Amino acid sequence: MIKKQVILCVDDEKLILDSLKKQLKRYFEELFLIEIAESAEEALALFDELRQEGHDIPLVITDFTMPGMRGDELLRRIHQYSPNTLNILLTGQATVEGVRNIINQAGLFMYLVKPWSAEELVSTVNQGLKIYQQGIRIEQQNKELAELNASLERKVQQRTEELEHKNRALQELNHEKDLLMSIVAHDLKAPLNKVKGVLELIKLAGHLNEDQQQYMRLAGQTIERGYHLIRDLLDINAYEHQGSEPDCQDVALVSLLEEQLVFFEAEATQKNITLQRDFPPQTTVVCTDGDFVVRILNNLLSNALKFSYPHTTVMISLKLKANRFELTIKDQGQGFSDEDKRLLFKKFQRLSARPTQGEGSTGLGLAIIKTLVDKLGGTIDLQSQQGQGTTFVVSLPNGLRRV
């Protein structure tokens, strides 16, 4: 059976029903089946039969006053079965209450007063059919959108589960990496200590010529670089974990900086580099983690001396601001290229600058600085052009008070 769309007409007066069917067939027979029923009960049975056969029923036209079930009750039941079906009421004796009930309970689309004109009927039916088709399209689009949304939700859920699985795997790998790094770093100390001990024994034995002494110095420098690498590996592994959090205590900041600068005087003198200070004259106490600040200063100052040319100046300055303090290290060294800046705080990166007297570099110093600054809730700013020196500005929060 070919499934078609149906217009169902209901009226207990055979003459009116035949006239209604004739007018509708004249304009809509090619597109629709025109079915009729002479009572509400017959209409309900026919409506159910048509739907079971798979026909679509976009429009029901019914009289109001009929023996047995009235038109308003018929339309109410049809609306329950098929909410999309549009209802047109033929009214000659309909009460206001009855029309109101159909509007409220059956979604009445339109009513026609008997007698009606053919033009009025055709216009009303055309308008209703357009609204019905539009509603079907909207319903289909909503269904497609719902299916698409469900599909997207399934894909998002699947992707989320995949990412969670990968994240857990990465966390496990990262944990294994950290554990391996810690084990390797600790285990490297033992052979370095043994080599260092052998070198000390050779020195005690004496009778070394100039070349042998030079080899001993080179071996000692290599051991020291190994120690620095182990220290940096262990430190960055510790700093990147939650167990190493800053401890905010009162720190006499200027005194702390002066104490650390003493350790760099010999290195600066060896390279004929001048260390200049620009500190506040008053004694200043800030609330911060002194160990973190010392490590930040030491790494920045060590880099400044390492990558600066002889007979230049390195400036260390401290500025106090509202709720913050700024530590600035400025050198006249090689500076950073644009590519250097992109890789600046990543681990084990080889940048364009090279130590000016062959000093060692682990590639972890700036990564450690960035980690510590982040943990303190601060910022680090780089001002540099290749060949024109470098300025690092570290801004850290504090509970500032002066004594």
For the structure shown, list the relevant keywords.
403 residues, alpha/beta, 5-stranded parallel β-sheet, 5-stranded mixed β-sheet, 13 strands, rod-shaped
Low-confidence stretches: none
Chain-averaged pLDDT: 83
Say how many strands there are.
Answer: 13
Helix count equals: 10
Order of helices and strands: EHEHEHEHEHHEHEEHEEHHEEE
From the spread of the alpha carbons, the general shape counts as: rod-shaped
Largest sheet: 5 strands, parallel
Strand content: 15-25%
Radius of gyration: 44 Å
- Summing up helix and strand content along with how strands pair, one would put the structural category as alpha/beta
Question: Order of strands in the sheet with the most strands?
Answer: 2-1-3-4-5
How far is the first residue's CA from the last residue's CA?
100 Å
Helix fraction bin: 40-55%
Give a written overview of the molecule.
- The protein is α/β, with parallel strands linked by helices and 403 residues long.
- It is 55% helix and 19% strand.
- It has ten helices and 13 strands.
- The chain is rod-shaped, with a radius of gyration of 44 Å.
- 23% of the residues are buried.
List the helices and strands and how they pair.
Blueprint lengths: L4 E6 L3 H15 L3 E6 L2 H13 L3 E8 L7 H11 L4 E6 L4 H11 L3 E4 L4 H88 L4 H30 L9 E4 H18 L3 E5 L5 E5 L1 H17 L6 E9 L2 E8 L6 H6 L21 H11 L3 E6 L5 E8 L3 E2 L1
Parallel strand pairs: 1-2, 1-3, 3-4, 4-5, 7-9
Antiparallel strand pairs: 6-8, 8-13, 9-10, 10-12, 11-12
Helix pairs in contact: 2-3, 3-4, 5-6, 6-10, 7-8, 8-10
